[in-house]
Design goal:
Blueprint (H helix, E strand, L loop, with lengths): L40 E6 L5 E6 L6 E5 L16
Antiparallel strand pairs: 1-2, 2-3
Bound molecules: zinc ion.
Length: 84
C-alpha cells in the first residue's frame, strides 16, 4: 500500500511566469524613492558582490533602483553603492 500522492503544483501558480512572481518583493522594495509610487515592476536578481537584491522600476517616473533583500531599504545603484 503506497501513501497517497498529491504533489501537483497549485493551479494558480503557472510555471515560468514572470508577471506573477513566486516571491512577493513588495516588502523589499515598497515604493519608488523618487515619487513614492507603489505599483513598481520588481525583479529579483543579485548585485555584483553576490547579495540578493530586487531591481525596482517605476512606471510613473521611470526611476530605477536596487534594494538588497532583507537589507535596510536603501535604494542602490547597479554597482551596489547607495544612490543618495
Ligand atoms: Zn517613481
Amino acid at each position: 500500500m503506497t501513501p497517497p500522492r498529491d504533489r501537483r503544483p497549485p493551479a494558480d501558480e503557472p510555471l515560468g511566469s514572470i508577471t506573477r512572481p513566486v516571491v512577493d518583493d513588495s516588502a523589499t522594495a515598497p515604493e519608488c524613492y523618487a515619487c513614492a509610487a507603489t505599483d513598481l515592476t520588481r525583479v529579483r536578481l543579485a548585485l555584483p558582490d553576490g547579495r540578493p537584491a530586487v531591481f525596482a522600476s517605476c512606471p510613473a517616473c521611470e526611476t530605477t533602483a536596487w534594494f538588497v533583500v532583507d537589507g535596510d531599504g536603501t535604494p542602490l545603484r547597479p554597482d551596489g553603492s547607495p544612490r543618495a
